[in-house]
Design brief:
425 residues, globular
Length: 425
């Protein structure tokens, strides 16, 4: 008797569904639902207490992680490929997050307070990098590891500061604009330091330095990547963006933006041997110059913050494990957290002072740069995936980022006490 084609299709589908039950598809659906609910619920709680949502999302990850509930360690979720899938999705989250950071970078605003921004941003990177590395060496870290700790401490995130300054009514003051502009300089420098550091440490197994030919090859690849990226960014992306607005395909603009982001990120690491986020950040900066950047920003935010970015923030917490902390780890956390606060205030504050700002204004600008937030998390998570930091050190860095995120709004309210909308830029 001849089988009916429809029955064969149903039988094949039944086989596929039966096989899917043996794969971690159901577990993936469950863990993603838990992560998203926990992230948004914790974010709501954080905002109710006057803290940024990112702090809640990061805290949710720490609670769900091995330090507390150990969600991925439960029998139902205990599959290596499930954990890898979650962390791969988190990688997409960080790529989209850095693309949005580039898309929000207005170089014209930076130009208004360029002297303050350049000096405060530059010294705000150099001071934490040097002091962070020096403080780490007595704890038994190699020079390479200490340097990477310094790079993590060099990062800054003004999303927390911006929200606090907005509540205080001084976001559009000269100090507020200077903080935002200095953070742009800081981000660019940290991304460059991170990218070159990774490029020059490709041999993670031996940790040996590159020879003269290898160094020349690395520099050549980095320069090739930057040259191609700038040519494409200046001459190709604008016409491509205009074409996407009129193309006869659904959601052509956002699809084009996503493809550009992914290609730039891939090209950065595959060709330039620099961090994926460098390519994503540059893609955002170049698309900012197009007429449709606001449309891209709105649609990308929905995708990123609605799904991928919460997975990244919670994923950072899931990677942190404080259960094995020793007395030395706790001492390191205290020392690193102290250096993280003092070095930013001193470095960025000194830069502002050298640029002609008053002592009070310089202290305000330096304080606004303290929080490491999502940028610090990005750098630390890349260090973990690249083998530059171990789980214990990564957990210390995550807790340091939590501490600076909590302290920044408190300190800003103190240094800006009694001021409101003063000295506009």
């Amino acid at each position: 008797m001849e089988k009916l084609p429809g029955l064969e299709l149903l039988a094949d589908r039944a086989i596929v569904l039966a096989a899917a039950k043996e794969l971690p598809v159901l577990e993936l659906l469950a863990v993603l639902a838990i992560i998203l609910v926990a992230a948004k619920a914790a974010g709501l709680i954080a905002t109710r207490f006057g803290q940024p949502a990112v702090l809640g999302e990061l805290s949710a990850g720490v609670i769900l992680g091995p330090s507390a509930l150990n969600l991925l360690g439960l029998d139902y979720f205990a599959q290596d490929n499930l954990k890898e899938t979650v962390f791969l999705m988190a990688e997409l989250g960080v790529i989209f997050l850095m693309f949005l950071a580039g898309l929000e970078t207005d170089l014209k605003e930076v130009n208004k307070v360029r002297r303050v921004a350049i000096l405060a941003g530059t010294l705000g990177v150099i001071f934490p990098l040097v002091t962070g590395a020096l403080v780490s060496l007595p704890f038994g870290f190699s020079v390479r590891e200490a340097m990477f700790i310094g790079i993590i401490l060099s990062a800054t995130s003004v999303s927390i500061s911006a929200r606090t300054l907005m509540e205080l009514g001084v976001l559009q003051s000269r100090q507020g604009v200077s903080i935002l502009a200095a953070a742009v300089i800081d981000d660019v420098l940290v991304i460059l330091f991170l990218s070159f550091f990774i490029a020059f440490n490709v041999d993670q197994g031996t940790g040996e330095g590159a020879g003269a030919l290898e160094i020349a090859a690395i520099i050549g690849r980095v320069l090739l990547f930057l040259a191609v990226a700038f040519v494409v960014g200046h001459f190709v992306l604008a016409p491509l963006a205009r074409w996407s607005t009129n193309a006869a395909m659904s959601e052509g603009v956002i699809v084009t933006a996503i493809v550009i982001t992914l290609v730039f990120a891939w090209f950065a690491e595959y060709v330039g041997e620099v961090a994926l986020i460098t390519g994503a950040f540059l893609a955002g900066i170049f698309l900012r110059r197009t007429e449709i950047h606001r449309v891209i920003d709105e649609k990308m935010r929905t995708i990123a913050y609605g799904f991928f970015v919460p997975i990244f923030f919670v994923g950072v917490g899931l990677s942190a494990d404080a259960t094995g902390f020793t007395a030395a780890d706790i001492a390191l956390l205290g020392a690193i957290s102290l250096v993280a606060v003092v070095s930013k205030i001193a470095g960025s504050g000194l830069g502002a002072l050298l640029a002609g700002e008053s002592v009070r204004s310089s202290a305000q600008i330096g304080t606004g740069m303290v929080s490491r937030g999502e940028v610090g998390l990005i750098v630390a998570s890349i260090g973990l995936t690249q083998g530059l930091v171990d789980t214990n050190l990564f957990s210390v860095m995550v807790l340091m980022i939590l501490i600076t995120t909590l302290l920044t709004p408190i300190m800003l309210r103190i240094v800006f006490a009694g001021e409101k909308e003063v000295q506009h830029a």
